[in-house]
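Sample intake sheet
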Amino acid sequence: MARQRASLIGLSIIVASVLATAAIVHGAGPPFTYRIGQRPDREIRVKVREFKIRNQTKTSNDRQAAADKVPPSMVNDPAPLRDLADRLDDLTVTIAKSSRIEDLPEVVRSSWKLRPEAYLDIKAATDTPQRRDNLHAQLIKAFEPLIANGVLGPEALPRNEEASAQLAIHGLGQPRDAASLVPRERVVPERIVKPDGSVHRDFVSAFTSPRLGEALFQLVADRIGGRPTLTFEPEVTARLREEARDAVEEKFDTYKLGQVLVEQGQSIGEEQLILLRMEHEAAVKALSVGSRCQRAAGILALVVALFLLTGYYIYRHEPRIAESIRHIATVCGLVVVCMAVVRMLANQTWNAELVPVAIGAMMLAVAYDPNFALMATFGLSILTCLALGGGMSLFLVVMGGTAAGVLALNEVRTRTKLIKVGATAALGYLLMTWATGLWEHQPLDLVRSDGFWRAGWGLMSGFFLGGSLPFLESTFGMVTGISLLELGDITHPLLQELVRRAPGTHNHSITVGAIAEAAAERIGANALLVRIGAYFHDIGKMLKPHYFVENQVGATSRHANLAPAMSTLIIVGHVKDGVDLGRQHHLPEPIIDLIEQHHGTTLVEYFYHEANRRCVDGSTVHESAFRYPGPKPQTREAAILMMSDAVESASRSLSEPTPSRLEGLVSDMIDKRLRDGQFDECSLTLRQIAEVRDSLIKSLIAIYHGRVKYPEQRTA
């Protein structure tokens, strides 16, 4: 029941990953594949009936033109001009009451710069009450345009408004909607006083006598410039111009079916890229539901095929992944995350979409196996091309550069190894980018830019992987060469405790590690894992060290007064104790597996035979009670450790360890375990077992080699 539940959970994880990956690859529809600098090998034409694109330049120009038509807003306070009109009217009254010009006060004549001719004209126009009333009415009429339009001061407008030909003027206290457009020349003092100006003509025409009008205008001309009445309203002007801009509708250019967007061999620039993107968005919107479903079904089928292919490879070559829900979830999650990041980085100018593929593949190479990582790289590269709409060139770049980095990840024993791997991947990306770019006749500038970007990201992948390695080890439950070397340090608490409590076991473990490492290297197994595992494989003995022969001092054994079954429990118990100690000190699972499997289900022969010898009542001694609980070795490394541990321990019992005796001992120990079925559950072949046997024989002969006896020595 538990196995079925685990299978259902694993299947659910895979199905969810397939659907998520297909959804990410599908995205919102067909991907946009064009980039700036790309040179298409054929004309690119509009494939939809029509699409419109906003003409930013024309829209901006029209809106600016509309804003420019809005004149500056001015408020007019006519009080200074009304005062000037009243003072001129008072002057005419004073002249009417005088007999001659000399009768006028000097201050009046000098302030108005009154000439005799003007005095006589005004005197003649006011010689009767009727004429005085007429002159008063004509003065009011003459000043009406000036009062209504106002006078512009020399610094009333900012410099950017001085070119305005018209002004929107409204009186003080009047609503702005009541403003009237006034030509600038009617309010500028320099233009007002010109004899041929419109203000001059209107002023003179208000009088029945042009001569009189001319004389009066000359009296006020010098005083108008000193009485500005207009004030600029910047906030109102800005608001009105913004409203004018908003009132202008956006301008669009229309492109119809078959119209050429990019010529053959033309490099795509920013304008062409905008057109192509708009055309692409229009094409995506125009897709029917049937077309979308058909594309989604095709992508889903391809994703399912890739997952099935990878799953078959895992079933055949990576059973530890297939048998663990955690490993299945980790691999599936890594694929989904990689594709999600690829989608996020799609169509960027810096070519970062290959980073998640490179890092994901390198993670799998470190966690599992380079061959499995290559299989995953193949699938991720295809999915990346589907998501980005890339062709064969993108596939070759991603696959080639990533494969170069994966193949360089044989064993990670130093931090610089990952940097070298990143450099290898960078070189692969650079070479493949240049090769595909030249093959597709792309501009050299684009090829050079893409090549350096991709090489840089490949190198950064190595740095990123190096920094995240501790997290990967805890997530995947894996051990790398770096972590193994750290574990093998003599300062490790467990090894320090083993040296203190069980020095004989420690020496035995060091020797087993040396000969096991050589044997593992002989058949291509993980030699470093075997050696470090050998250091810890007997740590359980430190809890009862004196019950093991290598730690006993003197001829008396503590097993002499114990029943064989009890002695067996103590001997067998060091495996469980070692596993418990390993978990307490957070040893990696592969090391704990070696501790648990290095005896397999072998028989504790000495105490089994002793139990049979002591059995005098004819009862049967069950062999299962004298066997280790197992499991049997599940990996080549565990099997090598089993053989190395057994032959090293047995070799210590030889009084004369000659090469022939050592060879016979090793062969006998290995054959006995082979016949006992201890290697049935690991992947060791008979040829590999023979090579391990030869390696162990050579290692033991080297350890027990004969030495020359010096004259002053009594023993060798």
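Comment: The chain is about 65% helix and 5% strand. Strands lie at 44-45, 50-54, 73-76, 166-171, 180-183, 230-232, 252-256, 260-262.
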